[in-house]
TrEMBL record:
Pfam families xref list: Pyr_redox_2
SUPFAM superfamilies recorded: FAD/NAD(P)-binding domain
InterPro entries: FAD/NAD-bd_sf, FAD/NAD-binding_dom
Domain FAD/NAD(P)-binding residue range list: 38-254
Protein name in the entry: FAD/NAD(P)-binding domain-containing protein
Biological classification of the source: Bacteria, Bacillati, Actinomycetota, Actinomycetes, Pseudonocardiales
Originating species: Amycolatopsis azurea DSM 43854
GO molecular function per UniProt: oxidoreductase activity
Length: 439
């Protein structure tokens, strides 16, 4: 049997190249959003961008997007660039453009910019056109997100603010940020994920000791020996950057071995039949499915490079050994009693969904083992029907692909249609709330 292993050179797309600029996109003209709106979206990542674009197509234009950073998809590209990631893991079919409204598809957008693409990138477009797996340059995806934000007037409806509270009532939702508040008919939480912290047992909890950092923090230059802890794509990027800098990299993988896979999760979860496995099954079955299918893995493109580095001794892989302790200086203590002394250690322990706890009252989130209780069809919070979730927080309703760009598309289609329908239905109440907010 022939095994197709895509080549590592597919990972090397240029980053930050000159891109034809879009007609001037206006940022929000006022420092603060209006006090009232139809919908507030918290989070301007790929999920928030997808929701705002879909609402625009549904004719819902009185939308306020609030994001800590205020830049559409800002955190996503900051994280990707920090890791030196040049291509997405998801194919051309997965993008925040709105289904059913003839939005320019990511693939067509890339073809429109043929002149700035490399021969390798052009061949990947041909692969996608032929229905094969394809690799998308981050540059192309970033320009596409900018195109969506401009063409759906999202940038001018986005304000920088750190949301502290989301207070739902029976007919409105008040979103309180650090500098302003907005009261709206509905809120959509597109909060994304935070990094998973190390167990308290490693160094007693709190900030990591000197010489230890997390994947979403810069790795300090210098130092001969680098340790990377984790088995996912993020770890692979950190390792390949360390090797490219000439460092001796120690890779600690708790599992018996690293796993290679095309997509983040089993690709069936990007299709209706995969998602259907989460429909109507018990909570414990969903948790079991999530545990079985939301597991760390690496794109195949990395395999030849990592295996060669290990064979040459530049990469030392500590397989099947969990970390028990991390001591300053830095030393990683493994469960077999061995010690791995390094100059710096980077932890890529995965992510946890931001579900709205800490923002909304507990009886709105109804947190169950780290997951909110959502309506399976509309993704509305069961405890706060005017608040919706799109992104990782919708995992238990949509399946493990909820955190991914394609999962956003599926959730967005349902949430935007529901919100638009609700707004159409309760127009009279809405005018009252807006007036209330304007008083
Ligand atoms: C390095 C990396 C690479 C990835 N690559 C892919 C890929 O190739 N394909 C794929 O399908 N998926 C990928 N993913 C998974 C997923 O698509 C990304 O995590 C994506 O960023 C999720 O989009 P999001 O909008 O849900 O969250 P985010 O992009 O994280 O956006 C959430 C936004 O909400 C803001 N926010 C959160 N809380 C508040 C608050 N209280 N107040 C104000 N703002 C707030 C955050 O600051 C952030 O800007 C990747 C993830 C990572 C980390």
């Amino acid at each position: 049997m022939i095994t197709f292993v895509p080549e590592p050179h597919l990972l090397d797309s240029p980053r930050g190249r000159e891109w034809p600029v879009l007609p001037a996109t206006r940022a929000a003209v006022t420092p603060e959003p209006p006090p009232g709106a139809d919908v507030v979206i918290v989070g301007a990542g790929p999920a928030g961008l997808a929701v705002a674009s879909a609402l625009w197509h549904h004719g819902v234009r009185d939308v306020v997007v609030v994001d800590r950073d205020g830049r559409p998809c800002g955190r996503f590209f900051d994280r990707v660039d920090l890791l030196g990631q040049r291509v997405l893991r998801s194919p051309y079919e997965h993008h925040p453009g709105v289904e059913g409204y003839r939005d320019c598809e990511l693939l067509d957008f890339a073809r429109l910019h043929w002149s700035v693409l490399t021969p390798v990138e052009r061949r990947e477009i041909r692969m996608a056109q032929a229905g094969h797996r394809s690799v998308v340059p981050v540059d192309v995806f970033e320009a596409y997100c900018r195109h969506l934000a401009a063409s759906h007037h999202v940038t001018e409806r986005t304000w920088r603010g750190s949301v502290r509270e989301v207070l739902p009532t029976s007919d409105a939702v008040t979103v309180r940020a650090d500098r302003f508040s907005v009261t709206a008919r509905h809120a959509v939480l597109c909060l994304g994920e935070e990094r998973r912290s190390a167990p308290d047992t490693w160094w007693g909890g709190g900030h990591p000791p000197r010489g230890v950092s997390y994947w979403d923090e810069p790795v300090p230059p210098g130092g001969k020996r680098l340790a990377v802890v984790g088995a996912g794509l993020t770890a692979a990027h950190l390792i390949s950057t360390g090797l490219a800098q000439g460092r001796e990299v120690h890779w600690v993988v708790r599992e018996a071995g690293e796993r290679y896979q095309c997509a983040d999760v089993n690709s069936s979860f990007f299709r209706p039949e995969g998602r259907a496995r989460f429909d109507g099954v018990s909570w414990s079955d969903r948790l079991e499915l999530m545990g079985r299918f939301r597991r760390a893995s690496i794109m195949f493109e990395f395999r030849p490079m990592l295996e060669a580095a290990e064979a040459e001794g530049r990469l030392v892989v500590h397989r099947g050994k969990a970390i028990t302790k991390v001591t300053p200086g830095v030393a990683l203590h493994l469960e077999d009693g061995s010690r791995v002394p390094v100059d710096h250690a980077v932890l890529a322990l995965g992510t946890t969904p931001s579900i709205g706890d800490g923002l909304m009252p507990d009886d709105a989130v109804l947190d169950r083992g780290g997951w909110p209780q959502l309506d399976e069809r509309t993704f509305a919070y069961v405890g706060a029907p005017r608040v919706f979730a799109v992104g990782a927080a919708a995992g238990m309703a949509l399946g493990p692909a909820a955190r991914n760009i394609d999962g956003h598309r599926v959730a967005t289609a349902r949430v935007a249609a529901t919100v638009a329908e609700n707004l159409r239905r309760d127009t009279p109440v809405r005018t009252a709330a807006k007036d209330h907010a304007r008083v």
